[in-house]
Amino acid sequence: MASSVEKQKSFLTYKKFAVVGASTDPSKWGTKILQWYVARGMDVTPIHPTNSQLEGLATVKSIEELPSPKETALSIITPGKITIKLLEQAKAQGVPAIWIQPGAADKDCVNYITTNEMAGYVLWQGECLWRDGDGILRSLAQQRASM
C-alpha cells in the first residue's frame, strides 16, 4: 500500500478537484478547504445539495453530477454518517482519489475503506490538506524541476 505522502502527492497531481462539505459559512472547514483550492487557481467544483453557488463557483448537487468523476480528486469534510454515504457514491462513480479531512471519518468509514480495498487511494488518517497541501505541492514542483 502507498504511504500517506505518496497518496497525498498522487491526490494533488489530478487536474480536477471537488469538495463536499463547503457552505456559505467562511468559518467552517469545508469552506476553508474550498478556498484553499480557489486561492491556488485549481479547477475545483463544490458539491452542495441546495446551494447553486459557493465562493463564486457553480455547484453540483452530488458526486454523480460531476462532469468527469473518474478524473476528479474528492475532498470530504462532513460528519462520519454523511462521509460513509459519500464513500459509497465515490466508489460507484469511480472517483480515483479521496482526501477525508480530520474528523470526517468514523469507525464505519474506516471499515468501509478497508473492506472495499480503497485504502490505496483514500486519505483518512489525520492528513490535512490545509496543513500539508502546500508542502506536498512544493515537493511535486521540486520533483518536476529535477527531471
Strand content: 15-25%
Instruction: Provide the low-confidence segments as ranges.
Output: none
SSE order, one letter for each helix or strand: HEHEEEEHEHEH
Helix content: 40-55%
Radius of gyration: 14 Å
Main beta sheet strand tally, sense and closure? 5 strands, parallel
* N-to-C span: 25 Å
Q: What is the oligomeric state here?
A: single chain
What's the tally of helices? Answer: 5
Strand sequence of the main sheet, in spatial order?
A: 2-1-5-6-7
What is the average of the pLDDT values?
96
Please give the number of β-strands.
Answer: 7
Structure write-up:
With 147 residues, the chain is α/β, with parallel strands linked by helices. It contains five helices and seven strands. It has a five-stranded parallel beta sheet with strand order 2-1-5-6-7, sandwiched between helices. The protein has a two-stranded antiparallel sheet with strand order 3-4. The relative contact order is 0.18. It starts with a helix and ends with a helix. Helix 1 packs across helix 5 and helix 3 packs parallel to helix 4 (107-115). Strand 5, helix 3 (80-93) and strand 6 form a beta-alpha-beta unit. It has helices at 4-12, 29-39, 80-93, 107-115, 129-145, and strands at 16-20, 43-47, 53-54, 57-58, 72-76, 97-100, 122-123.
